[in-house]
């Protein structure tokens, strides 16, 4: 009869499981941490053995032996300005769902962490930077110099020295604007995000590119700068509706501002989409439940975070790669009920 290592020593170790599974202890560690680098059949064999033997991970001991903190830092450009609560919540929820179970998250702002001395290998096993501005580069360079495993998400970073997964914000806003044009719209307004954020810049460029492709001009007064929060969408939509030259379609550079804009329309007696059409960006979870449901651009945040977490976990576990990943994820338009099809020449007076 095969002996049970737990009965002999009182403690089941990764080394014991590795011997019984006929694999390396590194493979066992990766399998128990949920890494996708282990084949499913091997992972199942290891997990079943661990459960059968009553293996209990000793995270405190692991920290002492490996000098690891079991903490992953997630740094946003600025938590007070420009980072909407919806986007922040989605990133955190996805990260918690996908990280190996022994890790905890520390959510920080680059603006407050920069120069604090608290970002070091002793405090973080790895770092994810949700980069929204080119001004983040000094912070990114600082982390890189310390040798902390790091993945950059959201913004395309030039140089290609770190793993980087980004959204194609330019394409997203371009296809949203092209859709509105196909629906007959020629009179537009734009509610932008924060000027210093790369996402806002790229989305504005995509919007303007679509207009240029169709020789459509826009009054500069119809381009308003918000901050990605609902309050700014509400305030700026009120300005647009009170301008005396009401557009047929207003494009907002995120869904949170679109919510504020939608409420402003209701307060001022404009119906969406009968009187004015509205398009958002991000496809947050609430967008399909608005009245009317919001036509928007789906930014695949869950895919982005999943890719980032998987890569960061591999880097923390010591895996090396010939070149860093540089991947741009294309968005898609989600057509709902907030855009009206106009007959040629139709406009709002």
Give structural attributes.
349 residues; alpha/beta; six-stranded parallel beta sheet; four-stranded parallel beta sheet; 12 strands; 41% helix; 15% strand; elongated; disordered N terminus
Brief synopsis:
With 349 residues, this protein is an alpha/beta fold. The chain has helices at residues 5-9, 14-21, 25-32, 40-53, 59-66, 85-98, 110-113, 137-146, 169-182, 198-213, 230-241, 255-267, 301-316; strands spanning 71-76, 104-109, 126-130, 150-154, 163-167, 188-192, 223-225, 249-252, 277-279, 296-298, 326-329, 332-334. The chain has 13 helices and twelve strands.
Show unreliable segments.
Answer: 1-9
Class by SSE composition: alpha/beta
Give the CA-CA distance, first to last residue.
88 Å
**What portion of residues is helical?**
40-55%
Radius of gyration over all CA atoms, rounded: 25 Å
Secondary structure tally: strands: 12
Shape field: elongated
Q: How much of the residues is beta strand, in percent?
A: 5-15%
Query: Main β-sheet: number of strands, strand sense, barrel status?
Result: 6 strands, parallel
Mean pLDDT: 88
Can you count the helices? 13
Question: How do the helices and strands follow one another from N- to C-terminus?
Answer: HHHHHEHEHEHEEHEHEHEHEEHEE
Largest sheet strand order: 2-1-3-4-5-11
Word description of this protein:
This protein is of the alpha/beta class and 349 residues long. It is 41% helix and 15% strand. It contains 13 helices and twelve strands. Strands 2-1-3-4-5-11 form a six-stranded parallel β-sheet, sandwiched between helices. A four-stranded parallel β-sheet has the order 7-6-8-9, with helices on both faces. Helix 8 links the parallel strand 3 (126-130) and strand 4. Helix 2 crosses helix 3 (25-32), helix 9 (169-182) packs parallel to helix 10 (198-213) and helix 11 (230-241) crosses helix 12. The protein is elongated, with a radius of gyration of 25 Å. It starts with a helix and ends in a 15-residue tail after the last strand. Residues 1-9 have low confidence and may be disordered.
């Amino acid at each position: 009869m095969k002996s049970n290592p737990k009965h002999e020593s009182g403690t089941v170790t990764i080394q014991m499981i590795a011997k019984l599974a006929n694999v390396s202890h590194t493979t066992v560690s990766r399998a128990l941490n949920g890494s996708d680098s282990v084949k499913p059949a091997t992972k199942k064999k290891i997990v079943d053995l661990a459960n059968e033997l009553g293996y209990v991970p000793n995270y405190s001991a692991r920290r002492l032996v490996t000098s690891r903190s079991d903490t992953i830092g997630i740094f946003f450009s600025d938590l007070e300005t420009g980072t909407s609560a919806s986007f922040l919540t989605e990133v955190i929820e996805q990260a918690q769902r996908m990280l190996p179970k022994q890790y905890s998250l520390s959510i920080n702002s680059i603006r407050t962490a920069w120069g604090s001395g608290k970002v070091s290998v002793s405090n973080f096993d790895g770092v994810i930077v949700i980069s929204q501005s080119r001004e983040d580069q000094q912070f990114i360079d600082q982390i890189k110099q310390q040798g902390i495993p790091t993945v950059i998400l959201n913004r395309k970073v030039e140089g290609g020295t770190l793993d980087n997964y980004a959204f194609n914000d330019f394409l997203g806003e371009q296809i949203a604007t092209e859709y509105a044009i196909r629906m007959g719209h020629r009179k537009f307004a734009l509610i932008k995000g924060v000027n210093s954020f790369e996402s806002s810049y790229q989305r504005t460029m995509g919007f303007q590119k679509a207009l240029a492709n169709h020789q459509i001009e826009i009054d500069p007064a119809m381009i308003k700068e918000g901050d990605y929060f609902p309050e700014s969408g509400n305030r700026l939509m009120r300005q647009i509706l009170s301008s005396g030259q009401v557009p047929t379609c207003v494009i907002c550079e995120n869904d949170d501002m679109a919510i504020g804009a939608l409420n402003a329309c209701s307060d001022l007696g404009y119906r969406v989409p009968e009187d004015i059409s509205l398009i958002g960006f991000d496809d947050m979870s609430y967008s399909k439940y608005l009245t009317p449901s919001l036509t928007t651009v789906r930014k695949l945040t869950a895919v982005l975070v999943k890719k980032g977490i998987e890569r960061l976990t591999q880097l923390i576990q010591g895996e090396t790669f010939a070149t860093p990943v540089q991947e741009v994820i294309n968005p898609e338009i989600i057509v709902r009920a907030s855009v009206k099809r106009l007959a040629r020449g139709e406009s709002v007076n």
